[in-house]
Amino acid sequence: MTASGSFVHQMATGELPREKYLRYLSQDAYFLFHFNRAYAQALRLAADVDEQRVFHELIGGVLDELKLHSAACEKWGVDVDAVEVHAASRAYVEFLESLHGKSSLELVAGMIPCMRLYAYVGRYFLTRADAGVDGIPDPRTSPYAEWFEAYGGDEMESLACRLESLLPEEIEDERAVDNYVEAIRLERDFFAAHA
């Protein structure tokens, strides 16, 4: 997925059909529930109180995301609990669950791409719209403005940076690198499933 990928670009312009957005949102709510479980696992593996604080903050961030998703689904009449889970969502959750019991480094490396991608894409559209970049719509005028405000804001960027701060500058653990790469692939597949 790129920032100008059709799904997110259509969200920014408001051209994305509501049904597609709601399908994505319900799948994302399913994913976030399990993503938060992975944070809980990371909290358990934290090396010290400072790391515990970081994971506590990240868990709170996901709970806030879930509130936004729940409010949007309720607003548009979607029962999140009745949604059939898409194969791309299931694959991503299975990957996260496979990281439970691994090292903190392996787990965190497999979680960072989600945080970084969402923070980047949300901010990409907001900052380019503010700068008047040609072809970049202002997502704040879209029916999906809440998504861009949540993911493009300072809080999401701060949370992504906090998670990244837990990794060493150079990762020598090949499994951690593999998890990072796999998470990127799963993010791409997740968005492609909704395009």
UniProtKB/TrEMBL annotation:
GO BP terms: thiamine metabolic process
Stretches assigned to the Thiaminase-2/PQQC domain: 7-191
InterPro entries: Haem_Oase-like_multi-hlx (IPR016084), Thiaminase-2/PQQC (IPR004305), Thiamine_Salvage_TenA (IPR050967)
Cross-referenced SUPFAM superfamilies: Heme oxygenase-like
Any one GO cellular component localisation term in the record: cytosol
Superkingdom to which the source organism belongs: Eukaryota
A UniProt-annotated Pfam family: TENA_THI-4
UniProt xrefs under PANTHER family: BIFUNCTIONAL TH2 PROTEIN, SI:CH1073-67J19.1-RELATED
Name of the molecule in the record: Thiaminase-2/PQQC domain-containing protein
Organism listed in the record: Ostreococcus lucimarinus (strain CCE9901)
